[in-house]
Amino acid sequence: MTHTSEPRGLRAELETLTTEAFRPELADVDRLPTLGIARLMNGEDATVAAAVAERLPAIAAAIDAVAERMARGGRLVYAGAGTAGRLGVLDASECPPTFNTGPGQVVGLIAGGPDALVTSVEGAEDSAELAAADLDALALTADDTVVGVSASGRTPYAVGAVTHARARGALTVGLACNAGSPLAAAAGHGIEVVVGPELLTGSTRLKAGTAQKLVLNMISTITMIRLGKTYGNLMVDVRASNEKLRARSRRIVALATGAADADVERALAATDGEVKNAVLVLLADVDGPTAARLLTESHGHLRAALTAAAGRP
Predict the structure, then answer these.
(1) Which ranges constitute the DSSP H helices of the chain?
(2) N or C: less crowded end of the chain, CB within 10 Å?
(3) Where in this chain does the record put each SIS domain (predicted)?
(4) H or E element: which one contains 110?
(5) pLDDT tens-digit profile of 224-267?
(6) Residues catalogued as catalytic
(7) pTM of the entire predicted model
(8) How far is 113 from 100, CA to CA, in rounded Å?
């Protein structure tokens, strides 16, 4: 019966993947006490950072390439299905409040669209054509970056996204958790973080998901550091969209400048609440409009703006 050949082929393929491997020594895990299972999981999780560490040179090379393109106005686009797609959407959605990124500057695409964030969309991950259509809706340019994310490294949506983006001249990164993956092979920058078999066979939301979260954190955070979105380890581009973030803004300005609370409030008032501008007002003793101009001329890099201010007649 021909209709069974494809599932058999897929089953054979999955059986070759490290992320899908069965661990017979854990066959009685359900008989352990809860604390014992928790210790097992914790021990498994402790190995993830070491697996990421082995791929740091590849991660850093990808980040430098991403930052170079984003400095020219390019976008960072994550594309994945299921857990991988959700992690990409999560990372993208956290960039505007953390780094004041513009609308559409960091984008998360998940196979099946927004509905797939909370429910399974049947067949979406198997469609490379769907990935191409989602990317075409963004009108990709050569300055954009597409990061395909897939634990198995074979998900058609992620591989299709990277393949389509590369054909359009965009920078491509393939993040997978199996060695020799089609996703890494399809991308300009392949990152394969091999975390080994999961505690629950094939449940790649566990170690593989943790590894992907760590790498995505690095890609977005270090790229934003390279783009001047921080001053030291302070989030000087934070967007004060609620009371907690307004309090954080005041604290960041105080930490960066050592200024008294009243001076911090005056500087933030003079710069419409822009933390980076307020820091420059206080450290360079300039007014709000001058701070804005210096930062524009320095492409948003606070250290460069401070140097320029110090060199003014």
Answers:
(1) 5-14, 34-45, 48-53, 56-70, 82-99, 128-136, 156-167, 182-186, 207-226, 243-257, 261-270, 275-284, 288-297, 302-310
(2) C
(3) 66-229
(4) strand 106-110
(5) 999 999 999 999 998 788 889 889 999 999 999 999 999 999 99
(6) 94, 125
(7) 0.91
(8) 24
